[in-house]
Design brief:
With 395 residues, this protein is of the alpha/beta class. It folds into 2 domains: 2-189, Collagenase (Catalytic Domain), CATH 3.40.390.10; 216-393, Rossmann fold, CATH 3.40.50. The protein is 39% helix and 14% strand. The strands form 3 sheets. The protein has a 5-stranded mixed beta sheet with strand order 2-1-3-5-4, sandwiched between helices. α3 packs antiparallel against α6, α4 (143-150) packs across α6 (168-189) and α7 packs across α12. The longest helix has 22 residues, at 168-189. It is elongated and about 75 Å long.
């Protein structure tokens, strides 16, 4: 299968880098780049007028390329993502920043995969709900965010394709799409550009004994907007660690704590939490969603001490100057908050999201943190990470 990629002259993408990515990861699908400047007419995209224009500009037929994919930020009159006419398909990524906070390059890769997946399935099947499957119709255009982060064939679509794909060329293209989807979802879940080189953040942690004789103590640290995730971990993490076999694999039971376990008492709350829970714990599991949390202050001077209580608790776990520091684990929700343009809290929500992004950027060279998209995803990841970290660092 030979694909020609075309970008209009104002489209913000490193087309050469994208071409390299596609050809490096695809064994059977061949991608080429149209390098001549393409300036689309002013106004909305329409059919057949815009397609007629493109055909006159790009004079190539099926003998050279089976598909020509054109990308632009211009808007379709019907506001669809794309339309096709013969071998030519024009994709509109109009107002991309209102649909997702992921890079537009990720969107290009998503729609290339989406288009090619449709070529494999002659049934024109589409999900009309947002499922994260590549065959979602995306009537709600913001569903493209889920599509990039999950980037998958759902089980029903996998079954359907396994029954209809018989030719070797189709099966090879199918394998190429799965490789490209894995790359897209791995990058998108981390809010990274698909063209970015993966960063490795190695950290050296000395093996240590548990601080308490009754087991490995784990404290849950989180700001106020993660109440449901926090309660889930406090209520079920310890039980599931035992019942799902993790305790047997690593040889230790875990005891999960939070500030809720403290008795009512005097003193600056963050100092009490630090002394009575953080310092006595083996692991700090920090969970973030859309906010960083309330800043902490020095109780003596009133000056700012940390950007938030949760951040302060995690940073103690990253303090390598303290040989008795707990081990830090951090998880960030991978989707930006959905904000109504007329919301009275719009600026405050954006401010908190920016604060969280700045904090995440500030610790990226000090630890490996992970994304999550839903509660079950978070629970599963924390369970497996805890087992591995206990096996690696506690003994």
């Amino acid at each position: 299968m030979k694909i020609l990629l075309v970008f209009d002259d104002k489209f913000p993408v490193d087309s050469e880098a994208l071409l390299r990515l596609l050809n490096e990861r695809s064994k059977s699908i061949q991608f080429r780049l149209y390098k001549t400047k393409l300036e689309l007419p002013a106004g909305l995209l329409t059919k057949p007028e815009t397609f007629d224009f493109v055909q006159k500009q790009i004079k190539t037929g099926r003998k050279t390329h089976e598909h020509i994919l054109v990308f632009t930020e211009k808007q379709y009159a019907d506001r669809f993502f794309f339309h096709g006419d013969g071998i030519r398909t024009i994709f509109s990524l109009y107002t991309w920043n209102y649909l997702t906070d992921l890079p537009i390059t990720n969107g290009v890769l998503y729609f290339i995969i989406d288009y090619l997946a449709l070529q494999l399935d002659p049934s024109d099947y589409r999900h009309y709900d947002i499922t994260g499957c590549i065959y979602d119709f995306l009537g709600d255009k913001t569903g493209v965010d889920d599509g990039m982060r999950q980037a998958r064939f759902c089980s029903n679509c996998l079954k359907r394709l396994s029954e209809i794909l018989t030719h070797e060329s189709e099966l090879n293209a199918f394998e190429d799409l799965k490789v490209l989807m894995n790359h897209l979802s791995n990058a998108s879940r981390w809010n990274q550009d698909v063209l970015a080189s993966p960063k490795k953040n190695p950290t050296k942690i000395e093996k240590r004994k548990p601080k308490n004789q009754d087991g490995v103590h784990v404290v849950i640290a989180s700001p106020g907007d993660t109440q449901s995730e926090r309660q889930m971990l406090l209520d079920y993490l310890e039980v599931k660690f035992r019942r799902d076999g993790h305790e047997g694999h690593c040889g230790f039971r875990i005891i999960v704590n939070g500030w809720e376990d403290l008795a009512s008492q005097g003193g600056y709350p963050q100092d009490v939490i630090n002394e009575r829970i953080i310092e006595r714990s083996d692991f700090v599991v920090a969970i973030f969603k859309h906010t960083l949390g309330t800043p902490t202050n020095d109780p003596e001077t009133g000056s700012r001490r940390s950007v938030s209580g949760t951040a302060e608790e995690l940073l103690q776990a990253l303090d390598k100057t303290n040989p008795d520091h707990p081990i830090g684990m951090a998880y960030f929700f991978s989707k930006a908050p959905v904000i109504s343009l007329d919301s009275p809290d719009k600026k405050e929500i954006e401010k908190e999201w920016d604060r969280l992004a700045q904090f995440k950027d500030s610790i990226k060279e000090r630890m490996i943190f992970k994304p999550y998209t839903e509660a079950s995803d978070l629970m599963s990841t924390v369970l497996h990470d805890l087992e591995k970290n206990i096996r690696d660092y506690v003994g």
